[in-house]
C-alpha cells in the first residue's frame, strides 16, 4: 500500500521553526501518592517510548530527490548528505535524479517521479518559480513535496519548505563587521555577491545592508559573481583594482571565495578583514590558520536536502518532530546562520563541506 498524506490548500504565513531543538517542560502538582504513582508509570512507559522513536524502522517509503548540478562544493554536499542520510534508514527507498541546471530537464525528472508513483519528492529547484507548476501537479497527485532552499512561488506547491536563512546570513555578516569596526563609521565596506538575479542573493545583500545601517556603515563597493571559483577570482580582481582602500569585505559564498582569495593574494592586498559565506571546510581551515585576511564565515547549511528527506519520511510514516509539542511536522523549517570565527571554528569544521 502506498503512503499518502492529506494536503491542505490553505496558506499558513508566519510558521517559522528554527533548526534548534525546542524543549517542552511540563509540571504537575498533587499528593505524594500521586507523585509516586506518576513516577512509577513514567518509569514503566520510558522503554516503550524509546522503542517507538522516530528513528525506529517503519513502513517502506519511496522518496525521489532532484537538485541542480553539483558544479560547486556546497551543491555537491547537498546530494552527498542526502545519500548518506538515506543509507541510515533501511525503510527509505531513495531515487536520485541526475543533477541538472536545465529547468526543463528538472521538470521532466519530477514528472517521471510522478509517473513512477513515488511517495514523496524532495526538490531543490534550479529555479523555484519555474518548478512551481510541476510541484503543484505532484501535490495534486497526492505526492508529498518537500521544497528545499529555493522557494516555490506558491506555498501550496509543497507540504514542507526547508530553507537556509539568506537574509539572516547577511545580517550575521553585517553584525560581525559592525563589531569589528568598533564604531568607526568611516570604514570602507565591500561586497562580492553571488548571482544577482536569484532572490537568495538579493536577500543576503539586503540583510547585510540592514545590519550595517545599525552601526552607521553602508556598502561602498559591490560586485556580483556566479558562485564559482573562476567568477570569484575575476570579480575580486576587478574590485581590488578599482578600490584602493578596503577595511572589510564580505564574500557571499566560500566556493567562489577560493577564487576571491586567489585574487587577493595575486594583488598583494592584506589591509582588510574578509568574511566568507556558506561555511566550507577550506574556509574554516583558513580561519584556523589565521595567517590571511579571512577571519570569519557565515554558515549556510548543506544539510538542507537531507533534512528534507528526513522530514518527508516523518510525514509519510505519520510521525512528528519529537522535540516539538506540535503533533504534525511544521510547514516551514528555517535553519540558523551563525558566524564562525577562530573562537568557535572547532565546533563547526567537522560538518563543513569541501569546496
From TrEMBL:
Lineage summary: Bacteria, Bacillati, Actinomycetota, Actinomycetes, Propionibacteriales
GO terms, molecular function: carbohydrate binding
Family: Belongs to the bacterial solute-binding protein 2 family.
Record's keyword terms, sorted: Signal
GO CC list: cell envelope
Subcellular location: Cell envelope
Residue ranges of the region described as Disordered: 34-60
Domain Periplasmic binding protein stretches: 63-319
Organism: Nocardioides glacieisoli
Protein name: Sugar ABC transporter substrate-binding protein
Superkingdom: Bacteria
Residue stretches of biased makeup (Low complexity): 43-52
Signal peptide residues on this chain, from the entry's feature table: 1-32
Amino acid at each position: 500500500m502506498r503512503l499518502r498524506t492529506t494536503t491542505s490548500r490553505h496558506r499558513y504565513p508566519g510558521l517559522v521553526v528554527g533548526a534548534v531543538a525546542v524543549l517542552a517542560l511540563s509540571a504537575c502538582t498533587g499528593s505524594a501518592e500521586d507523585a509516586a504513582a506518576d513516577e512509577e508509570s513514567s518509569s514503566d512507559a520510558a522503554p516503550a517510548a524509546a522503542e517507538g522513536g522516530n528513528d525506529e524502522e517503519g513502513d517502506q517509503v519511496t522518496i525521489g530527490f532532484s537538485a541542480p548540478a553539483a558544479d560547486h562544493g556546497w551543491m555537491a554536499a547537498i546530494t552527498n548528505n542526502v545519500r548518506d542520510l538515506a543509507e541510515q534508514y533501511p525503510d527509505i527507498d531513495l531515487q536520485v535524479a541526475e543533477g541538472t541546471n536545465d529547468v526543463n530537464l528538472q521538470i521532466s525528472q519530477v514528472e517521471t517521479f510522478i509517473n513512477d508513483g513515488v511517495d514523496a519528492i524532495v526538490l531543490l529547484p534550479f529555479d523555484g518559480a519555474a518548478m512551481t507548476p510541476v510541484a503543484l501537479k505532484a501535490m495534486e497527485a497526492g505526492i508529498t513535496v518537500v521544497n528545499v532552499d529555493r522557494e516555490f512561488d506558491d506555498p501550496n506547491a509543497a507540504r514542507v519548505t526547508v530553507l537556509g536563512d539568506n537574509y539572516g546570513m547577511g545580517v550575521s555578516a553585517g553584525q560581525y563587521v559592525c563589531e569589528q569596526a568598533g564604531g568607526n563609521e568611516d570604514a570602507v565596506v565591500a561586497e562580492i555577491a553571488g548571482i544577482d538575479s536569484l532572490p537568495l542573493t538579493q536577500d543576503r545583500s539586503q540583510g547585510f545592508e540592514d545590519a550595517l545601517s545599525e552601526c552607521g556603515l553602508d556598502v561602498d563597493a559591490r560586485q556580483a559573481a556566479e558562485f564559482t571559483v573562476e567568477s570569484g577570482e575575476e570579480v575580486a580582481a576587478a574590485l581590488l583594482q578599482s578600490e584602493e582602500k578596503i577595511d572589510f569585505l564580505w564574500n557571499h559564498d566560500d566556493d567562489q571565495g577560493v577564487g576571491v582569495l586567489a585574487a587577493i593574494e595575486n594583488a598583494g592586498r592584506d589591509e582588510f578583514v574578509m568574511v566568507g559565506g556558506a561555511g566550507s571546510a577550506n574556509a574554516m581551515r583558513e580561519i584556523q590558520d589565521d595567517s590571511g585576511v579571512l577571519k570569519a564565515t557565515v554558515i549556510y547549511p548543506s544539510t538542507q536536502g537531507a533534512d528534507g528527506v528526513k522530514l518527508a519520511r516523518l510525514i509519510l510514516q505519520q510521525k512528528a518532530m519529537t522535540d516539538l509539542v506540535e503533533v504534525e511536522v511544521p510547514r516551514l523549517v528555517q535553519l540558523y546562520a551563525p558566524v564562525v570565527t577562530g573562537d568557535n571554528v572547532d565546533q563547526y569544521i567537522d560538518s563543513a563541506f569541501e569546496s
